[in-house]
Every structure is written in structure tokens, then in C-alpha cells.
Design a protein that fits this description.
This protein is an alpha+beta fold and 168 residues long. It has four helices and nine strands, in the order βααβββαβββββα. Strand 2 and strand 3 form a beta hairpin. Helix 1 packs antiparallel against helix 2. The longest helix has 15 residues. The termini are far apart.
């Protein structure tokens, strides 16, 4: 049985290792390391038999011009290769979106697979008037989900991720 919980200090090494395994590169693990101490970040892990097998991170993003509510960026998310395609990522996303709601976030953006994230309610961000000027990504991989009813109509502007992402 897989359980999702907030990351604890003793999970740090496992989280770094999972990101390295899942992405085949140290970049995402380094981003997580830098963001871990940042305020308002939400970091969750998935465990099976008390072993950490997955991780998801949400960090605050800003919008220009400001919109008057909080928006989080999802990412990175990683699952140990042996446990991929078994629903672990889905559990992390659902639990993470719930945690974002509980912590006062009104919307979440993600840069990810356009075939995967819509099943959770994500839609193309450009259809909501959102841009991602700091990253050169195709329109279909930049998505947004509304967590607070009525926010969708007020989502407009340039999304800026924290500087820790640019340092990678």
C-alpha cells in the first residue's frame, strides 16, 4: 500500500536519489535541495513499506501583474523507476493539490506531459491568458488548474517561477 505524507528531514537523501533516478540527471534534485528551505514550499513523499518511492514539490510562483491570490508551481515530481506506471504519481498529485488548497493556494501551474496532467483537471495555460516568458516550452506542456472556484477567470499574466529554477 502506498501512503503519501509531507516530507520529513530524514527523507532528504531518498528524495534526492529518487529525482536522480527518475530524471537521469542531478538537476531536479539540486532544485529540490535549493527550494527545500524556501518559505511556502510543499514537499510530499510517497512511501511503500516505509521506503520513499516518490516525491512531489509545489513552490510559490508569481504573476505579473499580480492577481491577488496565491499560485503554486508543481514540480519536480518523481517516482522510482520500478514503481512508475503504478499510480504513485497520481496519488502524489491528488494529495499535493489537496495540500495546496489547505495551504491557501488558489491555482497550480505545471510544465509537464500534456497527455498526463489533464486527467487531474489541468488545462492549457495559454487559454487562460498565462504566459511563461522565462522558459521556452511548447504551449501544450504549460498547464494550469483552478483550486478555488472563480479563479480561472482572473488568471492572466506572466508566470515567474522562483529563481532556484533558473540556477539549474
Amino acid at each position: 500500500m502506498v501512503r503519501v505524507r509531507f516530507e520529513q528531514p530524514e527523507d532528504a537523501a531518498a528524495v534526492h536519489d529518487i529525482n536522480d533516478q527518475a530524471f537521469g540527471s542531478p538537476i531536479e534534485g539540486q532544485i529540490v535541495e535549493r527550494l527545500r528551505a524556501a518559505p511556502d514550499c510543499l514537499s510530499l513523499v510517497a512511501t511503500r513499506n516505509d521506503l520513499v518511492i516518490g516525491h512531489i514539490l509545489f513552490s510559490p510562483v508569481s504573476l505579473e501583474p499580480p492577481v491577488g491570490f496565491r499560485v503554486a508551481g508543481l514540480g519536480p515530481m518523481s517516482v522510482v523507476p520500478d514503481h512508475q506506471r503504478a499510480g504513485v504519481g497520481s496519488q502524489l498529485i491528488r494529495a499535493g493539490l489537496g495540500a495546496c488548497r489547505e495551504h491557501g493556494y488558489s491555482a497550480v501551474v505545471v510544465v509537464g506531459h500534456p497527455e498526463y496532467y489533464p486527467r487531474f483537471g489541468f488545462e492549457p495555460a495559454h487559454t487562460r491568458g498565462l504566459t511563461l516568458p522565462d522558459f521556452d516550452v511548447p504551449h501544450d506542456v504549460f498547464m494550469v488548474i483552478e483550486l478555488e472556484p472563480g479563479v480561472r477567470e482572473r488568471l492572466r499574466g506572466a508566470v515567474r517561477y522562483r529563481s532556484e529554477f533558473a540556477e539549474a
